């Protein structure tokens, strides 16, 4: 089993650091003693929220800036030991409605970061948040790092390009870069304003408000839900590991579960809400990928990472968080 190293005096930049995954990374880094700069453009409808850094506000520097602004990135990449690259356009549906925006943020933004690092800090450890959406529909199961990549939406294609840019900079310039392909991540500090992405957290809101949770189709498709603190461990561990340089890893769970089962567990944990079924809307059906079961064997073998939190335990912690703080997230 892995143990994260202390990071006293080390400097880390977290792009998208006011968002869900980025802010949880910032919390962990502060806990390990790092000096953290959060770099976030505060773009809507994404998950940025100053409440996400409330408990660590005294210990982090917050820079409101965009990854599409090359000069700003250059200024803030200088002197960092680590960059956790969590900024992104994160909605599958929006990537289809506005492909130019997705291209701009998920390709140009990432290229800016890599060029800034290459010119001013080429030994910073960079960890990129990739996604299982880079794969598309499963051709075999469990999905591993050798699986072909055929994304079914613009988001998946541009995230894949983002990963390939990162790995290219490792290959050509020897930069210490790693990509983790994350599955559905849930947990504390996720936005609950809308259901454009982060469906499990959205279901928690519906249940807390005693509303109906609509499942399209049979709900039998298998999915994986990773608790955010396990994912944060994987990101920090990848940054600390020598072996991970120039590599990419699939990050997943011990057990996939039917989508319907996930919704029922949310209702059970919250003790309110109701699951109802409806036919698939056309725009969602078009980008639906069916069963997704992935393997984290490579991450376990090379990084020692494996998920520590069961789905039930993660859900309990998440619901407890929002019972207290829901008004800050809706
Ligand atoms: N949450 C998941 O289930 C999941 C799964 C796979 C991959 N990912 C990836 O993880 C990363 C973080 O996602 P999240 O779930 O925390 O989303 P989020 O919306 O909570 O956070 C994203 C943050 O990035 C910021 N941002 C967006 N564009 C920016 C730009 N151009 N410059 C600076 N900041 C910008 C937003 O303001 C927001 O705070 C993304 O790259 C996403 O693709 C997330």
Structural features, described:
It contains eleven helices and 13 strands. It is α/β, with parallel strands linked by helices and 330 residues long. 39% of the residues lie in helices and 18% in strands. It has a seven-stranded parallel sheet, with helices on both faces. A two-stranded parallel ribbon has the order 7-10. The protein has a two-stranded parallel ribbon with strand order 8-13. The chain starts with 10 loop residues before the first strand and ends in a 5-residue tail after the last helix. α5 (154-173) links the parallel β5 (125-131) and β6. The chain has helices spanning 20-31, 70-77, 92-97, 99-120, 154-173, 199-208, 228-240, 259-270, 282-285, 297-303, 311-325; strands at 11-15, 35-40, 60-64, 82-85, 125-131, 177-182, 184-186, 212-216, 222-223, 225-227, 247-251, 257-258, 274-278. The chain is globular, with a radius of gyration of 19 Å. It has a domain at 11-187 and 227-252 and 295-307: Rossmann fold. The structure holds nicotinamide-adenine-dinucleotide. Nicotinamide-adenine-dinucleotide (NAD) binds next to α1, α4, β5 and β7. One of its GO terms (molecular function) is GDP-mannose 4,6-dehydratase activity. Its EC number is 4.2.1.47.
Helix and strand layout, with pairings?
Layout: E1 11-15, H1 20-31, E2 35-40, E3 60-64, H2 70-77, E4 82-85, H3 92-97, H4 99-120, E5 125-131, H5 154-173, E6 177-182, E7 184-186, H6 199-208, E8 212-216, E9 222-223, E10 225-227, H7 228-240, E11 247-251, E12 257-258, H8 259-270, E13 274-278, H9 282-285, H10 297-303, H11 311-325
Parallel strand pairs: 1-2, 1-4, 2-3, 4-5, 5-6, 6-11, 7-10, 8-13
Antiparallel strand pairs: 9-12
Bound molecules: nicotinamide-adenine-dinucleotide.
EC number: 4.2.1.47
Protein name: GDP-mannose 4,6-dehydratase
Pfam family, one: Epimerase
